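Q: Structure for this?
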Amino acid sequence: MSLMDVQGLTKAFDGKTVVSDVSFELQPGTCVALLGPNGAGKTTTLRMLAGFSRPTDGQISFDQQSLSEDIRQYTGYLPQFPSFHNWMSGLEFLVYVGQLSYLTKAEATERANELLKRVGLEDAKKQRIKKYSGGMKQRLGIAQALINDPKLIILDEPVSALDPIGRREVLDLMRELKKESTILFSTHILNDAEEVSDELLMLHNGELVEHGSLEKLNHLDQTGKIQLNFAVYPENLESELENLSSIQHVRPVGQGVEVVVRDMDEARKEILQLVTVNEWPLTKFEQAKTTLEDVFMKVVNS
Amino acid sequence: MKWSVIYKREMMEYARNIKWIWVPIVFFIFGIMDQITMYYLPKIIDATGGMPEGAEINIPTPPPAEAFFLSINEMNSLGILIIGLISMGLIAGELKNGVYELVLSKPVKFANYVTAKWAALSTLVLVSLFTGLLAGWYYTNILFGDLGFDKFLTAFLIYGIYLIFFITIAVLVNTWFKSPGMVLFLSILLIVLVNLLTSAFGHILTWSPGHISSYISTYLFTGTLTGEMWGAIGTTIVLIIGMLFAAVEILKRKEL
């Protein structure tokens, strides 16, 4: 049973299609990364899911319910650049948004204090938000997204603007959160996606180009890469290698070559044979795993 | 209720940025400055050297009704400007700086969001107007003669509706543009247009909101509320409700 079911989601601004026919399902308890370069339509997609902008076309159903009900009571949303009422204190702001989410003042205060402790803002809770640093605002932004104990947490680029320490803190927090809720977050940084997410959605030019679990996408590219280095660069190296049926492509890199292969086992055998026969001074033979980056570039460029 | 949560937060904001202090003070000054100047004008002229010999200007003391109306006149120009200034960022400011993203990602209805903000601003303006007109009425009684308290109260209530009409125009314009400067310019332009149209076609548009202040002037002299006055009040209230609806609908349909 899926938590959120998105079918044919499309958004056009003034006739220009920004998100086109995006369909996916979110399983409860997963952490899903929406990956794509800047301008891919990530923010637009998330804003539609958070209820800010109406889809031009398509359906979003939540927890088997149709969208006629206000799904905002079940979701928490952190925009890419959260702004607050800067004259309020962190605690006041959380109590305010808590009361907007059907909590009584007492409940909202209790929950706000709990969350402030959790995101490490307990000491600053009485301070005006004006005085908060960027990282503190981001953490307050996460706290406000959690105020109503949401079934789905939507985070737009939660770590992109943070320094390494802030980034680490937020990633750790997300790893904790995914134990109790479902998270959908966008990022253009593959590392962040690899680090916390179970599933990936890849968006490019408004279209969903890949969808699947991390492992599945890692294995997507069956062709592997082999890195070969030599003490002395052999003559005819490239042409000899390219003659092998198991090899797709050869590219010189530094002291050696990078070989893209069709079949790893076959290629390993043939290359080593060639090395022995020609007595090439091989110094390094490394089988490189295709990284997410390669998958992404491949998907995007195909 | 979520409506009252937004309303209270707005009230808290007016307290923190001291609007609760300066707006009533400014309206207080607008309320009394004309009466005081007019009363002391002969003394001021004397103190600054007096009139040249032979010149004689007789400044008649205005009747109390006219003296009190000077306060409303000031509200009509400077008061409108101040209201324009404090309402130009009401919604537009939040749309521009992005706070709305956090507020509207919570289950908040647009109608609550708009009307709570509108009501909060109206409260501030009505309290300020009350302060200003009460002071004007008090000085009128001291300096120019008796004017009944009921006259003050009626004038306050009716003119209050007119100022809420202006606030509603500003709220509506707030949902069109994100730039507060543009909102200020358009709100003032619209109220000026209403008044211009009213003076140009006054004989047809007898129920126009633009007539309200001149009807109040008549009322202060005669003490009776005419049918035209009731008509203008009715039109104004209908327009206020209509504009609030429009503001909510526009915000709903807007690509935020």
